[in-house]
Amino acid sequence: MTASARDLAQWLDARLGVTGHPDYPGALNGLQFDHRGPVRRIASAVDASLRSIAGAAESGANFMIVHHGLFWGGSQRVTGPVYERFRLLIDADVALYSAHLPLDSHPELGNNVLLARELGLESTREFAIYHGVAIGVSGEADRLTADLIAAARAFASRHGGDVRTTATQPGRRTRRWAICTGAGASTETLREAEERGVDTLIVGEGPHHTAVEAPERGIVVIQAGHYATETLGVRAAADLVSAEFGLPGQFVDVPTGF
What we know:
- Helix 2 (50-58) runs parallel beside helix 3.
- This protein has helices at residues 5-16, 50-58, 80-91, 101-105, 111-118, 145-157, 187-195, 208-216, 226-229, 232-245; strands at residues 30-33, 42-47, 63-68, 95-98, 125-130, 133-144, 164-165, 173-180, 200-203, 220-223, 249-251.
- The protein is elongated and about 55 Å long.
- By secondary structure, the chain is an alpha/beta fold.
- The protein folds into 2 domains: 5-99, Udp-n-acetylmuramoylalanyl-d-glutamate--2,6- Diaminopimelate Ligase, Chain: A, domain 1; 104-229, NIF3 (NGG1p interacting factor 3)-like (Udp-n-acetylmuramoylalanyl-d-glutamate--2,6- Diaminopimelate Ligase, Chain: A, domain 1).
- The protein is built from 10 helices and 11 strands.
């Protein structure tokens, strides 16, 4: 099947529910960078960095699916690293498609629901409401918190990261958990977790003040890495595109350590 970048983008827009999904202004979800085409091979990556674009080009891919796109900083001069990214995309004729919060919140392909599955947790409720849309997931369990931390550490290590946690006690059990990948530990998510009776919050990362607040609210925060926790959605989306359009593909792993 011969397909253009716009064909794949329109299919992804519909599959991920991109249109009308709330997000940060710099996310610019959808097709961000076009190409001559047609699409021969696809690649996925967490970030639209120079290293990930180079990895996609070296693999022969000319369509990229990323979680963090090109325009997080808003309007920028096309100089230095910004120019180099654009130049490489044009030289290698690589189109770039980005999906941020739509790929966090998706009930089948989302980072949050997939991370829960990776950790052996069954999500039954929504969590982390942003402009009326649930980004994260939550559920109930009966597991040693230490075992959950170990599972998160094993997951993070596969992507060049590690786990950080707030204080916990030996023998502590997780009864109600919530997940919000990426920069998921915020004052808002901690308050929501406390209101919902969540005792264990699993995120990618969070600011220092949330580590101060969490014990006061009776919550253990497990930080499994921003990068690691957001590798899942783009890989799942790319696998689906490969199957739908009969295109080979690969994940370009460029760990940041965070």
